[in-house]
Structures are given as C-alpha cells and as structure tokens.
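User: Can you help me understand a structure? I only have the sequence.
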Amino acid sequence: MPSQSQKRLLILASSSPYRKLLLQRLGLPFDVQSPAIDESRHPGETPADMVERLANSKAGVVARRFPAAVVVGSDQVAVHDGQVIGKPGSADRARLQLRSFSGHQVDFLTAVSVQCLELGLRFAACVVTEVCFRTLADDEIERYVARDNPIDCAGSFKSEAAGTTLLSAMRSSDPTAIIGLPLISVAQALRQAGYAMP
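Assistant: Let's start by predicting it. Here is the structure, written out as tokens:
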C-alpha cells in the first residue's frame, strides 16, 4: 500500500519537454505547471546565483499555488569565458555559438529546487557539468545544426541526441544534469519527502 507521501501530488514546475521526459524516468505520476516567471539576470548576479535563484523561484511560485504538493523546479545556464550563454533561438546563432565553443570548455550549471510547503521541505542542489568541445570544422557544425536543430538548447547542442559527437569529454556528478534535470538530486529530495525510490 502506498504511503501518504506516495499519494501526495508531485508537480514539475516547468514547460520544458526535456525535463518532463527526464522526470518520467522515475516512474512516478506527476502533473506539469508552468511557473511563468521573469528569467532575467539580476545586475551583478553570478551565473551560479542566477540559476539557483531561478530554480527556487520556479518551484516556489508553483508550491504557493499547491501547498500540499511536492514541486520540482529547475534551471540551467551555460557559461563560456565567464559569459552566460543563452538559447540560440535560430540556426544562425547556434552555428555562431558552436564556432565559439570549438576547442574550448563550456560549463553547464543545472540547479534544482524541490519544495513542499505542507511538509516544510526546501531542497536545493546545483550540478556543474564540464563540457569539452573538440575542434569543430564548419561543415561538421552545419551538419549537426541541420540534424538536431538545437535552437531551444543553451549551448546549442543536445547531449541526448547527436550532440555528443561534438565533444572530446564531459565531466559531471550526474549524467542527467546536462539534459536539464539532475535526477540523482531529485531522487534524493523525493526520498526526503517520503517517496519510495527503487
């Protein structure tokens, strides 16, 4: 028989299809709610501070709407040469980003916040993934962008698709963080909330 926590509504505070697919891996039923927050960077804010604040804000907005639910919020930012790299939004910008990353390392910071007001739960974690791009020829970049169309991905590549062919190495404590939701951390939080995790 499931525990009371197993019956508690689980909500993903995100409109990201990638995060939805990742959370489905845990085999728990959940709803999706868009947090609809301003994701602008605050003046003087470090990339780590920004991504952690946004993950907390996303979870917090939805948790206040559903105080009995366990809410998962996440945010990700790419950093190259100290600069925050956003989603390219177009194939041309994706090609430009990838040319600038050729032969360099890009750090992806993925923050997660899990909150439940009724339980008094407020869990937060941030996972850094070091992504090392190999030296890329223009024709490789052209073929990759045409194949994966990564215009909605920070850093212009999809590690869950052909994006790994652009890399020489990737280092992270959680292999799912690069896709947008660090499931090791999420599972830890859900165990704290009383969910039975395999």
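Now, to help you interpret it: The chain is about 30% helix and 25% strand. The chain has a mean pLDDT of 93. Let me know which part you'd like to focus on.
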